[in-house]
Amino acid sequence: MEIFGDMGELAAEKHVEYILSVEKKKDSFESVVMEHLRMNGAYWGLTTLDLLGKLHAVDVDQIVSWIIKCQHDSGGFGGNIGHDPHVLYTLSAVQVLALFDKLDVLDIEKVSTYVAGLQNEDGSFSGDMWGEIDTRFSYIAICCLSLLHRLDKINVENAVSYIVSCKNLDGGFGCMPGGESHAGQIFCCVGALAITGALHHIDKDLLGWWLCERQVKSGGLNGRPEKLPDVCYSWWVLSSLIMIDRVHWINKEKLVKYILDCQDLDNGGISDRPDDAVDVYHTYFGVAGLSLLEYTGLKAIDPAYALPVDVVNRIFIGRQSKKES
Ligand SMILES: [Zn+2]
């Protein structure tokens, strides 16, 4: 970190303790709030641990058997045991199993049939059987099927043309055709286009300009014009800029400093803005953002799959690369 001078450091050990403590405090307020999306919480927390090199601190068998209990006959996963299935939790379940190299516990045919069944005629995706449509679900479905090597189960061409139909004049993307550009939505659309090899549909300079304009004076990034900066946009904006090869357009040092300023140095965890309360979600996005910024001591994260690069390589290149690295 010498190049960034004296700007404080990542309290890695504290963040590991924080993540592990959240998992143990099952009756805490945060845990009750998180109850229905514990699967997402597991993904955020465990990916953070992996990026910090501490995934071995958890009980793999216990987590894997809990994940299996969250699966429904349809093949989809709920956010917790007994909760309705949704593509959001299904991707998180697949990502957590990928972290542990346990994808082989899945009936891949069944899971991929569930996800592929959510595609609509026009190429869009619904999030669950209730039918809400959003480009977020396009990304989630495409990412999930790609990790399972089952992209052939959907109409990729229609999926891409639906996403392209959500592109705006400012170069960004919305949740549906005509929807306002938003950094979270842009990540989803750029990520889906990256995974399907369709980034040529993006005007990289125009979108890169919109994205780098998200950096405010404090160094943090916001999600839309006139909004406050928030650590989670370190992920949505940065990953998009990396995928379109325009990350050099923002001030990296200032962003690193902003994320480090959002740490709770006493109890661990990262918040959305300096001095706010920490949570697992922002802790993950802060650490993932620092990983994208190549912060020393963190594993590299893949900007499209939102998983550590070594995990993605294991899935797409095979075990050989793991032994060699
Ligand atoms: Zn946020």
UniProtKB/TrEMBL annotation:
Assigned protein family: Belongs to the protein prenyltransferase subunit beta family.
Residue ranges of every copy of the Prenyltransferase alpha-alpha toroid domain listed in the record: 10-306
Its EC number(s): 2.5.1.60
Taxonomic lineage of the native organism: Eukaryota, Viridiplantae, Streptophyta, Embryophyta, Tracheophyta
Superkingdom in the source lineage: Eukaryota
UniProt-listed InterPro entries: PGGT1B-like (IPR045089), Prenyltrans (IPR001330), Ptb1 (IPR026873), Terpenoid_cyclase/PrenylTrfase (IPR008930)
Co-factor requirement: Zn(2+)
UniProt keyword terms in alphabetical order: Metal-binding, Prenyltransferase, Repeat, Transferase, Zinc
Reactions that this protein is recorded to catalyse: geranylgeranyl diphosphate + L-cysteinyl-[protein] = S-geranylgeranyl-L-cysteinyl-[protein] + diphosphate
Source organism per UniProt: Ziziphus jujuba
Alphabetized SUPFAM superfamilies for the sequence: Terpenoid cyclases/Protein prenyltransferases (SSF48239)
Cofactor-binding details, from the entry: Binds 1 zinc ion per subunit.
Name of the gene encoding the protein in the UniProt record: LOC107405794
The protein's name: Geranylgeranyl transferase type-2 subunit beta
GO MF term list: transferase activity
Enzyme class per UniProt: transferase
Record's function text: Catalyzes the transfer of a geranylgeranyl moiety from geranylgeranyl diphosphate to both cysteines of proteins with the C-terminal sequence -XXCC, -XCXC and -CCXX.
Pfam families for the chain: Prenyltrans (PF00432)
CDD domains reported in the protein's UniProt record: GGTase-II
